[in-house]
Amino acid sequence: MKNFLKYVSVFSASLILLIIGVEYMLRQVPNALAFKKELIEKHTQDTKNLIIGSSVVNCGINPAYLADSTYNLAISGEWFRFNQILLEKYIQQMPQLKNVFWGICFHSLWSDDNENTDISSIVNHQIYMGISRNHNKLHNIELLSLGSLCMRKWSKYYIQRRPTMRCDSLGVDHSYDSKFKDNNWLEDIPDLVADQHKPMLADTNGDLYHENISRMHQIAQVCKSKGITLYLVMPPVHPTYFQLMNQEQLTLIHNAITEVTNKWENVHSLEYFGDTRFNDEDFYDGNHLSSDIGAIKFTKILKDDILTDL
Questions:
Q1: Domain range list for the chain
Q2: What are phi and psi of 292, to 5 degrees?
Q3: Which CATH architecture does the domain made up of 31-138+166-309 adopt?
Q4: How many contiguous H segments (helices) and E segments (strands) does the chain have?
């Protein structure tokens, strides 16, 4: 019995040490969330323009072509709940902040940061950005929370020696560069549009839609209290994507934007969904600009449209 207990103790101790070792190695793997947290904390005192939102602006607005002291804090798969928490976490530390550019896509108003949608986003925000929805202690241990996802991340970085993060020094995500786009991206657009209509269909009572509108009002109020202009930016989508957009969904987006801009004088809407100046070369897929071509073109247009405020 003593030998059995000894073996169990040795095995348990070895397992715990292994978990600790793997967890430590996982924390050393470069990732966009840790990088952007470090980026914004390094530049809180000099940031004048800030970009927040999900992947459509993570890859779609390039600060280098907008204005000095502009940083892209947008994160793929991050929705309004965490957009708000992230901005409120840092806005008090930014004495020079003048403008916030908030990216909104076709399904933003029906999306939320939750475990059912994307557990990896919830865990990674808690570990790497200090942002939590429910303060689940298990989410502080990446290996136990994400399991096989972690091992793929570990293997990609340590075994395959492939990049796990492609953000540049201003925060633009270059994993959306044109050289990485799928060969069948044009053929995939109808399925993409259909998938991004599903969140609206799932929100049968409109509860999430109205919650997200409320978050827009709250962010507008926070910005107003600091004398900050808030731009609600809807980047261009591919013409085929735009043609296939559900019109009811598009109307609800317009209604939400109009409600917020009518109430808050510091909020402006910049919609480019159906902008005909963009062609195949400018896109990574149906609703993302290529970060090396389309984003530069779009940012220059954006700058021209708001030049007096920069």
A1: 31-138+166-309
A2: -95, -15
A3: 3-Layer(aba) Sandwich (3.40)
A4: 13, 7
Q: Shortest CA distance to 289 belongs to which of 210, 144, 172, 123?
A: 172
Total-model pTM: 0.94
Q: Which two tokens stand for residue 165?
A: 């993060």
Phi/psi of residue 71, each to 5°? -135, 140
Burial class (CB in 10 A: 0-12, 13-18, 19+), 207: exposed
- Report how far residue 181's alpha carbon sits from residue 197's, in angstroms, rounded to the nearest whole number: 22
Q: What is the mean pLDDT of residues 17-34?
A: 88
Q: How far apart, in whole angstroms, are the C-alpha atoms of residue 15 and residue 205?
A: 47
User: CA dist 216 to 201, 258, 260, Å?
Assistant: 21, 11, 7
CA distance 98 to 231: 11
Q: Which residue has the higher pLDDT, 16 or 284?
A: 284
DSSP β-ladder status, 283-285 and 288-289? antiparallel
- The helix (H) or strand (E) run that includes residue 153 is helix 148-154
- DSSP-assigned letter for residue 159: I
pLDDT at 118: 85
Alpha-carbon distance of 61 to 294, in angstroms, equals: 9
Backbone φ and ψ for 243, nearest 5 degrees, come out as -65, -30
Decide if 121 contacts 85 (C-beta within 8 A): no
